[in-house]
Amino acid sequence: MNSLKATNLSKSYVTSHESIDVLDDINLSISLNDQIAISGNSGSGKSTLLHLLAALDTPTSGKILIDETNIEDFTKTDISSLRLNNFGFVYQFHHLLEDLNVIENILIPGQLANNNPDLKESAYELAEMIGLSHRLNHLPWKLSGGEKQRVAIARALINKPKIIFLDEPTGNLDEKNAEIIQNLLFEMSTKHGVALVAATHDNKFIRNFKTIYKLENKKLNEI
Questions:
Q1: CA 127 – CA 18 distance, rounded (Å)
Q2: Domains recognised in the chain with CATH numbers
Q3: Which of 102, 99, 90 is nearest to 157 (CA)?
Q4: What is the mean pLDDT of residues 206-213?
Q5: Contact 35, 189 (CB under 8 A)
Q6: Disulfide-capable partner of 168 in 9, 40, 60, 92 (CB 3.0 to 4.6 Å)?
Q7: What is the DSSP code (8-state) at residue 168?
Q8: What does the pLDDT look like over 34-44, one tens digit per residue?
Q9: How far is CA 7 from each of CA 69, 107, 158, rounded to the nearest angstrom?
């Protein structure tokens, strides 16, 4: 995979009483090594847009193109494989499995993909990079919030994704840990050539991105 493109993307939700428009005619291109921030107020649709781009939800209208192929032409198996092998995810809340230790949590996507003979070696290298090689056997409840988020980043990188989607990754952290996470993400992006696509209203975080968009009134505009 070399590119992802949203073309005339719109999303509405239908309730029993009305149709609620969330996104309207969104156009966005993502290439390898891009670093894109999507800003906007809470409730503006940032998370919805990320879910559409990552094939976790389907648009009401418009297209998601993977290397110019419409994702609608993919089978469910193709889409699952696309997400597993090309996308990484980091959310505001780490979503670690509480009964698995650090190294086991990092390994999960790689074990599902089952396509890396050096999986454990890669996991140990990532643990070293995030500064938690001394905590490999610790369960999540023994980690700080910042440490848990670092594990989530390593987990997102284990399959060597082309794009990491970030949904308010620093929103649950204090200023010191938020800065650590920000620096780590950009270091990993540069070192591994991974595109970052972040939904955030953290102004300090936003300033580090190469391209910044604002989602407002259902529209996406570069700023």
A1: 48
A2: 30-60+83-222 (3.40.50.300)
A3: 90
A4: 91
A5: yes
A6: 92
A7: S
A8: 999 999 888 88
A9: 12, 34, 30
